[in-house]
Amino acid sequence: MLDIRQLAYFVAVAEEEHVGRAAEKLHISQSPLSRQIAQLEEKLELTLFERSQQRIRLTRDGRTFLAEARAFLTHGQRLQAMAKRLGKGDEGGLCIGYIENAMHSGLLPTALRTLRAGRPQVHVALYSLRSPEQIEGLRQRSLDIALLCDPPAPNDPDLDFAQVLSDPMLLALPASHPLAGLAALTPADLAGQEWIAVMHQEDALRHDLFVAACARAGFTPEVRMEASEPLTALGLVAASLGIAMVQSSLRHHAPAGVVLREVPWFSYRTPLWAAWHKVNLRPLVGIFRETLLASVDLGQARASAADAALPAKARRRRT
């Protein structure tokens, strides 16, 4: 194995063509420097210098070796600098798993935009996966961060987590629907309506929880159509095929022909959780986790400020 220090000594002697001057440049004595060069030649089984009483100069093989030694040392310096950047979290890669609501809500894009602004060299790979697959990815260390609908068990020995979203529901109505023009909606208004249910492939239990929340509110949804995700449900509502409940974070994704109304008496919420491995060997993972959690607070503050700035009449139109 080559000694990097010996290579640096060799390059200094080759550039100065004088052991004494090279020793002064390296701040070492001349005799140890000569020994290091001799040991390098012995290790390589190659004569690097032609020596005489007056001067020392490279052999033909030495000149060839010098070009490679310089390239090797330059690469070593770059490698050291890269390691320092990795240690600071300024460079490297992130593998992030997510469910659709992490994108629709704007939570993940906001966090990624913040990260990219401060660390443009970071490479990010995104994987749309179901929550159980993300949990397994965290355990196998193929994922750094998971954004999922259900957290790991509270006593999980490997994983930590935090809730990053608790999204209230909005009622989506066709613009021509009789309920769209009412000043306020009650649970009785929703009884007997034709509903479009969002049947998440992620977790069938979520639909049961949604129906239970409807029952607690005082009505039972008559489901006539099922959609696998909320954007599809909004498209069906726009086609006047029924009404639906969707997450509040989708308010800006509603197509033309859909009116979104707040139903503050409806208790169901759509949660989103962030999870990560307890053993964090890379600062970048911790940095992005903090960026993600900070973007939650920032996003909530911006939404509250935007709503507060709107006149009451405008807020009613918006909802």
Q: Can you tell me about this structure?
A:
The protein is an alpha/beta fold and 319 residues long. It has 3 domains: 4-88, Orthogonal Bundle (Arc Repressor Mutant, subunit A); 93-164 and 271-318, Periplasmic binding protein-like II (D-Maltodextrin-Binding Protein, domain 2, 3-Layer(aba) Sandwich); 168-268, D-Maltodextrin-Binding Protein, domain 2 (3-Layer(aba) Sandwich). It has 12 helices and 11 strands. The protein has helices at 4-16, 19-26, 30-44, 60-88, 100-104, 107-118, 131-140, 187-190, 205-217, 230-238, 283-309, 312-318; strands at residues 49-51, 56-58, 93-98, 123-128, 145-148, 159-174, 194-198, 222-227, 244-247, 258-262, 269-277. Strands 3, 4, 5, 6, 9, 10 and 11 form a 7-stranded mixed β-sheet that branches. A two-stranded antiparallel sheet has the order 1-2. Helix 9 links the parallel strand 7 (194-198) and strand 8 (222-227). Helix 1 packs across helix 2 (19-26). The chain is rod-shaped, with a radius of gyration of 32 Å.
Q: Radius of gyration, rounded?
A: 32 Å
Estimated helix fraction: 40-55%
Overall residue-averaged pLDDT value: 84
Structural class: alpha/beta
Write the element-wise H/E pattern from the N-terminal end onward: HHHEEHEHHEHEEHEHEHEEEHH
**What is the number of domains?**
3
How many individual β-strands? 11
CATH architecture of the largest domain: 3-Layer(aba) Sandwich
Shape: rod-shaped
Helix count, per DSSP? 12
CATH class of the largest domain: Alpha Beta
CATH topological fold name of the largest domain:
D-Maltodextrin-Binding Protein, domain 2
